[in-house]
Amino acid sequence: MSSLNVGVIGLGRMGSLYARNLAQRVPHARLVAVADQKADLREQFANELGGVKVYASHLDLLQDKDVEAVAIVTSTSTHKQVVMDAAACGKAIFCEKPMSLSLADAYEMLRAVEKAGVFFHMAFQRRFDAGYLAAKKKVDDGVIGVPVVMTCVSRDPFRPPLEFCDPKVSGGLIADMGVHDFDLGRMFMGEVATVNAVGGALAYPEMKSVGDIDNALVNMVFENGTLGSVQLSRNAVFGYDIRTEIWGTKGSLQIGYFQHTPILVMTREGITHDVVPHFMQRFEGAYLTQIQDFVDRVRKAEPPSLTAADAIAAMRISLAATMSCREGRTVRVSEADAMAHGIAS
Amino acid sequence: MSSLNVGVIGLGRMGSLYARNLAQRVPHARLVAVADQKADLREQFANELGGVKVYASHLDLLQDKDVEAVAIVTSTSTHKQVVMDAAACGKAIFCEKPMSLSLADAYEMLRAVEKAGVFFHMAFQRRFDAGYLAAKKKVDDGVIGVPVVMTCVSRDPFRPPLEFCDPKVSGGLIADMGVHDFDLGRMFMGEVATVNAVGGALAYPEMKSVGDIDNALVNMVFENGTLGSVQLSRNAVFGYDIRTEIWGTKGSLQIGYFQHTPILVMTREGITHDVVPHFMQRFEGAYLTQIQDFVDRVRKAEPPSLTAADAIAAMRISLAATMSCREGRTVRVSEADAMAHGIAS
Amino acid sequence: MSSLNVGVIGLGRMGSLYARNLAQRVPHARLVAVADQKADLREQFANELGGVKVYASHLDLLQDKDVEAVAIVTSTSTHKQVVMDAAACGKAIFCEKPMSLSLADAYEMLRAVEKAGVFFHMAFQRRFDAGYLAAKKKVDDGVIGVPVVMTCVSRDPFRPPLEFCDPKVSGGLIADMGVHDFDLGRMFMGEVATVNAVGGALAYPEMKSVGDIDNALVNMVFENGTLGSVQLSRNAVFGYDIRTEIWGTKGSLQIGYFQHTPILVMTREGITHDVVPHFMQRFEGAYLTQIQDFVDRVRKAEPPSLTAADAIAAMRISLAATMSCREGRTVRVSEADAMAHGIAS
Amino acid sequence: MSSLNVGVIGLGRMGSLYARNLAQRVPHARLVAVADQKADLREQFANELGGVKVYASHLDLLQDKDVEAVAIVTSTSTHKQVVMDAAACGKAIFCEKPMSLSLADAYEMLRAVEKAGVFFHMAFQRRFDAGYLAAKKKVDDGVIGVPVVMTCVSRDPFRPPLEFCDPKVSGGLIADMGVHDFDLGRMFMGEVATVNAVGGALAYPEMKSVGDIDNALVNMVFENGTLGSVQLSRNAVFGYDIRTEIWGTKGSLQIGYFQHTPILVMTREGITHDVVPHFMQRFEGAYLTQIQDFVDRVRKAEPPSLTAADAIAAMRISLAATMSCREGRTVRVSEADAMAHGIAS
Question: In chain B, which residues have their Cβ closer than 8 Å to the Cβ of C25?
């Protein structure tokens, strides 16, 4: 079986990561083209990795017959158009999260993908992390009995620039950060029936000016009656704090870690270690494993690990939780469809 | 200043612990009398610790002029009567949690204590644990900036016998276990405005037969707008799992530990350690520090560290959370007063 | 069986601990008398614990017919005389480590104890620590197969005052600190055949003025061919660092811990916890368990857990290691007997 | 500055790792050729990475004008010849450890490299590990004051096949495993003056048949009077156990970690995690950083981070320690030169 020729659309921080991984670290993948509107990013990348075609427009890249598959890593507001263009061109698609700004857009993208019959992988890198993979195996092996409660902590070390906090751009804290945890909920526990969320702009009062919050607590009841908690924060100033626990009838699992560098410092001040700085460090391996999974499945004509329907399901939970937080009441996930045209994630 | 002569009413597991601590480990305390209806407990205790007067009825103990103070460790249903009797006799009172089965009873006890003008300490041992004391000091010293979110996990290693799970006896899971966490919320964050809880009999379906649940997740909004989460479970089959985190604007604190014996076993199966088995081991020091605090404050005529009003405040949160769980809606803590005559903690 | 009436000789830091434990925390023990040459210590103790007879001279205490057993916690230089006096009076003896300043003295004490036929317990509290007890059980249960290497770290948080570092008083670093680890070697691995030690006054050059060192590394070959390492230091400025590892053919054990208070502080500086400050905190439980073991065995007429012969065996290893360090060569433990009249531990 | 064209000689486990890293993960490096005597390894590699020239003989690769630098990863017995050939061809040289089987060979290689004036990097990957790099920076920043003792543990999860344990091939346990720790000693503490080692075939008695041991303890005195301990073992059956501690006058550092996958399993059996399996996983990042360092320095005409003299210095310590273990006496490192023609590392 020959290698897969991939193009990367969008050369921001995440796009560069995917491009480098595809160029250098993914067996059976060839990075053949990249596209970005910004000339300096294109130039920088062309210098770094020779022999890759460089386009200013994603449409030109999509016309390139050499390109069999694309990783779409543009800003969220453009995802709908680029995905629909890529589907129309028959390319296999890897779409970075979040899928779209509104649920309505996501449904439209889903229909376009289904109509074109193209391969579509929705990126949720945590599912490919060694810890979560090991946890899934332990649960499936019955090590902790039946899972009855899942608790998730997701905490960023600082807030994004205010313009990226604007819910019209980010979907708001609950959608922007929580969507990963809601997806994990679906992975480990099942579909969510109801959510209840509370939140506030507590650490960065200036977030109120753009209508966002910096801390939120979300409780979930799954359709099978089991429970979930998602705790979100932008003020883990010490580092990147991603933890999940799964509580079963015969035991529990903890996934996550704090320490980054394998060194302890022991002085009169106590024993100290550093902390994983941010998601690039925490999920470096997961990002690589995920894009490898995409390449392998496209090459072998296997179905994607995560679909547009998975993205929509997590988005609906995000929307319902955001609604709950705003309205101060328990919300059924099915109520999210009424918000289909509102901001999602 | 002379020693304080203390009597212990109730010689069950906790009563015996207090009695032994008072007899052997609390400086400036003298255990002078114990009372219990059960002859075998009385006899066993008299054999173990000679020179202590033994009564079958708490009323006889309260009549004993030698007794200056009493620790009330009887079953919860009797707390109201014993406290009111002790107040009438002018004894300084240490009352084990929970204060009473109903909020109405608690208010009545509060009035009796106030009317008699006696010293009344409400037991919440976690406030006297080295970890929580250190955390309080760190917060007061500004180490983590302003606390904005508190998250608590309280998990028992097994469920109580079904007859003790009956909410008419225990107050139900949320009141029985959560009252400690609600009190910690008041210690670290302030008064609670609203609560939202979800729960279920997920690990022990037989709990449904007595109307109780075994897992619950409670979210709180404090009156100052900060947030709290309490996660309760009866199925931490690996051991006793008590953890609290306080998230501030400049850092976070984690209180709690798992490992009991200081030994790691490293074999082909991985690296393994044991776990704190239950509350007696986890809070051994806190129980001792708390009763010492009681003795010291009575002797020095200082006000109690924790009052009946503190117990009532935690009880109101428990009631509101229980109500929220049953009715599937966010509940204001002030609504608890309408349940004053219902089951509390 | 009635309680055991115990007297404590020596009311320094360790003596006070034993006296309080015997008075308050050891079932079936009665503290009936204490003795110390210092009037202020006697007075302070009489005030703290009423009802205990107080003597200035150990001879007076030994004449007291009420006293059935004694804990000897005087300065090492007096151990020989006090033990021989106690043996002559027929008292059961608990002797704090180190047994004596010279091996010759120790042999003399052993003969006196044997001649009098009295119970003699040599104190090595680590053998009664929960971690070491658990390790012994794991080894005996075969969890790690056959132990082949033992490694020990013993590090003090600061150096003693120089006058106590003088090898004529302390025996020197290797004897003073290492004797615990040599005893553990005998507990877990067997008798020692040869030792090789290196050391230096590296952190506190002023120790050279009294002829002592502050760091040493000792390697041992046991008679069965297995190996041991003892690493000693006075400059663990962060806290008290006591660790042992046992490496077997099927796994390993680590005994020890650093964290004292169950709280983690997470700030921009990293994640920090405190450390066990010193031996009183690390071995609080072991000191209590050991004296309880002494009381129980005397009462039940069982043989002591640790004998004078055990002390002498550990002392011989200390002496041989000290000799090795001074002479820069591998030394057979049997060579220690030639130093019988020199400084030991 | 253009990329560096590198050839890899030897395609065994380590050679394949270097080749893949150079082909895919090292910026500014181009893998242009590989050489191995084994046809199947050549074929497998040609299939995996197209566009790389494949040679059966290292001499042919060295004649290739495209090749500017070579990584020599052949069996140790061939290092001398290949290094001398590469030096004669003027190639920059990266030489995998151990440098040679005898000290005499190493000196000869050193002279050949010096005469040819070529770049020569001796591989000791630990120096490039994030933990050791962070430790070096902490020490240099004075965080722990003056280092006075260094302790190293290096334990393999299993023994090599007996034919590779033969000291004529491996140099024996102390040289084969310990050379890394001896090099760390030079990195952190300085040159070694004397060593004393004990060891035995304790876990795998069959090692005696080839004249090797499976456990050893080595104590070192550095020329500046500070101390070091190296503890070596082949029976860490639970995983790969690499730890270093540096004890200073103001604090200590611990480098190393056990846990591999970020997941804790909590069941009735206790809390369990897995362990780093072997050196490929533990030092994956260090191997990459080291070869990158080689490429960068050759390209920038900077001196190598580690030279042939560094290798010889560590080898001399290995030899002296091996001699000490065999002869049961303390050995000066300078005595190793008398063994220059014996087996080294």
Answer: 24-25
